[in-house]
Amino acid sequence: MDCLIVASTEPYAGKTGVTAALLLEAAERGVVAGYFKPFGTMPVTAGEHETDSDAAYLSSLAALKAPAHVVCPVVRTHALVEQVLAGEAPSVVARVLDAYQTISSDVQVVFVEGPSDLSQGTVFGLNLQRLADMLCGRVLLLHRPGTAELPEELVHAKDVLGDNLLGVLFNDVSSARLIATTTRVTDYLDSVGIKVFGVIPHDAALSAVSVAEIVAELDGVVLAGEAGVDEPVESFMVGAMGQEKALRYFRRRARKAVVTGGDRSDVQLAALETDTRCVICTGGMAPSSIVLSRADELGIPMVLVEMDTLSAVEHMEVLFGHVRVHDATKVARIRELLGAHADLDSLFAALDG
Amino acid sequence: MLDGFFTPETVAVVGVARESGKVGHFVFRNLIDGGFAGAVWPVNPKADEILGQKCYASVAALPATPDLVIVAVPAPVVSDVIRQCSAVGVSSAIILSAGFKETGPVGARLERELAQVAAEGGVRLLGPNCLGLVATPSKLNAAFAGSVPRSGGVAFLSQSGALGTAIIDESASGGPGIAYFVSLGNRADVSEHDLLREWEHDPAVRVAAGYLESVKDGTAFLAAARSFTRKRPLVILKAGTSDAGARAVSSHTGSLAGSDVAYDSALRDCGALRVNSAEELMDAALAFDLLPIPDGPGVALLTNAGGLGVLATDETERRGLSMASLDSDTVAALRACLPDAAAFYNPVDVLGDADPGRYADAMHALLADDGVHTLLVMLTPQAMTLPMETANAIVAAAAESEVAVIACFVGGDVVHEARSLLREGGVACYPSPERAVFAASLIERYRTIRAVGLDVVEQPDVDVASATTLLTEARTLGRPFVTDEIAAQVASHFGIPVPCGSVGATYSVAAEIAEDCGYPVALKISSPDILHKSDVGGVVVGIKDSEELLSAYDSLLDRIRRRAPGAAVAGVYVQKMASSGRELIVGINRDSTFGPLLMVGLGGVYVEVLKDVTFGLCPVSPKRAKEMLASLTGYALLRGVRGEQAADLDAAADIISRVSWMASLLPDIVELDINPVIVLNRGQGAVAADIRIGIGG
């Protein structure tokens, strides 16, 4: 039995998605795999137990036998945080080890969704370094290259984890950084003994939310174009200019939502002329019926919301900043990207060893 | 062919109510009262007879297949009526009924169903939600307007039914004579370009005039309009030019008003004449209905009031018309027939006591002058003036001449009847010198359009495939703008000269590029996240050697780190500095109706302030590109001032034309700016120094 801990250098680096894709990949390769998340941060209730929402999703996606609260035995609830601050941190290490025992009993490999960075879980004795030692696991570290010019976080991780660091997977890499990352940075890491398993480019579809999710978040009503409510939306723009400028501006983004006043029929039509997935009409002002007709013809939802444009934008920002991969299409897309841009054969071969 | 609409022999009206006040009943009565020679059949299953005519239960029950069916039943049952029409072979139907896309998604679905039923059944549709149609040659009044227009040569199309009623009423009260009036309604099928195609060959049409808020299909409209204007004038009033007006258009017709400069360019490029008010539309219609297209540009003015003469002269000059220089024989003839106090040169003043005979003599003298192609005859009602008799004299003189004679009778009740008499006599008469000169300017503009012809463009030798491949690859990265390097390569494939340059991801590569291209060079930050490089200090120019390059490289990246901390940087774009020259800006924006729109202007640092720019639809020929340059206020700067050499206008025009072809042949380009195009002195060429290509999201 082998153990691969999928961890990252910062939150929202793609751990859940990559772990899910690896689980499916393992199944296809005939490898019996299990999934374990020792420490969750997104509490949900599954039956009588608290567990983590990512863990619950992955359990259902990969049809895992173990119940969700075993898959993720410790969840950072408010109560737990307060206990820690009151100096009453419970001992959870034994619970984690017990659960891991159950998960790992009849599988060839366990994919462990690990901490979001090197320090997370420290107060519970569950940080990345401790976990790797406890579970005899090796770490696949996900890293989104930011603005730093030198990959110091990765070199630091190597110092901390030593041989437990199996390697690094660059994720969500912008087009401008792709070449430098695949050449100079990879060569450098190789020279300091850090294996790079792949460089996954940014993919807009992965950070998308559906029109229906937006409607729910904004408490909106779909007035026309219901046919398009399941479409993914990758970004949003605000329209407050004249129709000519609006057209030019809206063409710059595809698969977007446009937020504008309900009385701005010119902006709404300009949005409908470009690659738009929904139009959010704010201020509780219903758009003109002829614009609704056009939207309906195109199958683009017109969503009426009571809040003003500013509030709607704030809600959208939160929604787009915290996208979770609870969507089989997105997991399939991550598998495609891994297949194309990561050396999965080497990764699985390393696990066999 | 739309002859079923304009020359039917039999007409059925479906949905004729027994009582008056309903649309169907109104149209049915208009058809009967209008004197239509063929059969008119009312259809109403609940009535036996309406207005003395036998009523039929359905289209199928009619004695024969009607050529035209007018439908005034509620929207949900219109499709059924069209199915019945299709079953018996009806080819044309006017849908007066409202309740379609103008009412919302449910109505829009009904309209789509209607359009589909009609298309499948071979029935052409006018409307729905329209006022109907009037065809005076066949005495067909199939509209629910309250008046009957005078017959004449104007074919009107209107996207506003209500404005149409005003046009018809003005025609009836002595305005332009109408051959056809068509209310377009929602344009589920028949639209403006279909009508222009139909009218192009119709001898009853002397001019087409339209009120439009949008064009349904830009390409089809341009093709139809180009073809039409070769034969007849086309006058368009395009509404929705302001931001607020555009918003009103959006909620009136559910279509974008479109960019006003795009409409302006489109109408100019297809040879149409654009007017700016309902009054101008009617004045233009009257002019083209009654006036011949002149043989030349010379305008002569004849007046009985010096003040009018001066006003008209000012307006003539302002409108860019040419005041005819009178031949010495003409002046002699005028001297022979006018009092000594008269003015014998253009404008000719026959004085306040002029009687009809003096007007007639002066007109004969002026109409005999080969340099006079348009004659404006003005009158104010002074004590000795005889307006009616003078009007008769003008009608008689005009009838004997090929010259375009325009009357201008200024005043109120005293001249009112004389104006009507002039119009009845086939002379266009206007109530002010400004409006009369405007009419003269329109016929002159149309004469020029016909004489000069429209721009003929030939595709230059360009490598579309390679450019397309570059843009397709760029699209996969999901960034709205391509890099400087790709932009320059795309331009090169279109034969546009660009400075030597490439992206260096490291200093050593940047230094190699600089050596290869040759100093001096410019450095520009290469990052898809930075759109306006100068704003974040991402451009350094005038780097003379490798030492300066190193320092510029370091300081540039430092600035970017501070001012654009989140930006992903691919490196620096190293570009050879172009020699200095005069600067142009060339831009492309894609209009929702007419496609790529070219902008050309004087470039440089004051471009935003001076806004000295001109527009045209793509593609343009180098010849047209030169005309665009010549139309700039600052054109003199390109020609050279105070001993300066002229700029290489041929090279500049070649770049402009090639850019227009880029936009036409590469649909991936949604916007483009070249600022500056550096134009060197004549014979030394021009170069596109900084190209920004937007490919959208």
Number of helices of chain A: 15
Number of strands of chain A: 17
Round the Cα radius of gyration of chain A to an integer and report it: 23 Å
The order of strands across the largest sheet of chain B is 9-8-11-10-12-13-14
Annotation, overall tally of beta strands of chain B: 30
**Chains forming the largest contact:** A-B, 43 and 49 residues
Low-confidence stretches of chain B: none
Shape of chain A: globular
| Dominant shape of chain B | flat
Beta-strand content estimate of chain B? 15-25%
Uncertain regions spanning at least 5 consecutive residues of chain A: none
Kindly describe this structure.
- The complex is a heterodimer of chains A (353) and B (697).
- Chain A is an alpha/beta fold.
- Helices cover 40% and strands 21% of the residues of chain B.
- In chain B, strand 25 and strand 26 form a beta hairpin.
- In chain B, helix 6 packs parallel to helix 7, helix 11 runs parallel beside helix 16 and helix 17 packs antiparallel against helix 18.
- Chain B is flat.
- The chains are: A alpha/beta (353), B alpha/beta (697).
- At the A-B interface, helix 8, helix 10, helix 11 and helix 12 of A face helix 4 and helix 8 of B.
